[in-house]
Amino acid sequence: xxxxxxxxxxxxxxxxxxxxxxxxxxxxxxxxxxxxxxxxxxxxxxxxxxxxxxxxxxxxxxxxxxxxxxxxxxxxxxxxxxxxxxxxxxxxxxxxxxxxxxxxxxxxxxxxxxxxxxxxxxxxxxxxxxxxxxxxxxxxxxxxxxxxxxxxxxxxxxxxxxxxxxxxxxxxxxxxxxxxxxxxxxxxxxxxxxxxxxxxxxxxxxxxxxxxxxxxxxxxxxxxxxxxxxxxxx
Length: 234
Ligand SMILES: O=P(O)(O)O[C@H]1O[C@H](CO)[C@@H](O)[C@H]1O
Ligand SMILES: O=c1cc[nH]c(=O)[nH]1
What we know:
The protein is an alpha/beta fold. The chain has helices spanning 23-33, 67-81, 116-119, 132-144, 167-173, 183-193, 215-220, 223-233, and strands at residues 16-19, 35-41, 48-53, 56-61, 85-94, 104-112, 149-156, 178-180, 196-206, 211-212. It has one domain: Rossmann fold (3-Layer(aba) Sandwich).
């Protein structure tokens, strides 16, 4: 049984799946962190892998950029492959002044300008929140290993190139830690299907200060976030 976007056989994914936006980051995570990792899907080069971490099965798959792409893959992973713990490991642009490049943000909630959660919630405002158990495990593990994380609200934007630069000030006033493009959609998909989701982000840019990692660093430089996530959840 395959889906329009995933050509893996039934049972090819673990219950826990890490979800970077970039399929090459999925490959990097599989090669660097998983034992016996095998590529289980490659439709459109959206690579997915399953292996083990400390003996436990784990999958990792790219989602592409933006809520529509992420929603397709996560819906198929849940409905057809039984994935029930979906953990986005992404990058974001920081908003708050105290945040630095390479910092780790755990998205407790995700605001958005996307209409997807209103579409699935009778046009009401849906509070897109992380699964508390996944969140607690990652935050507790960070505390016990002295890894600094920031926990709070992020903004999942439809536009990477947002023309209205005044919005940034408003985000800062409202305490938005960082801007990315998928978390609110992921949380909506998870809620609709009754499964658990979390988003952990590494700061790749500072939107207010105009600082940025290189594209190589974005692809490969998220070791601390991945280690924290795997160690906390396995
Ligand atoms: O690094 P990823 O996980 O792709 O996340 C961020 O990077 C992309 C934009 O460059 C968007 O997908 C955004 O959410
Ligand atoms: O979506 C994103 C990701 C990184 N940096 C941004 O400014 N936006």
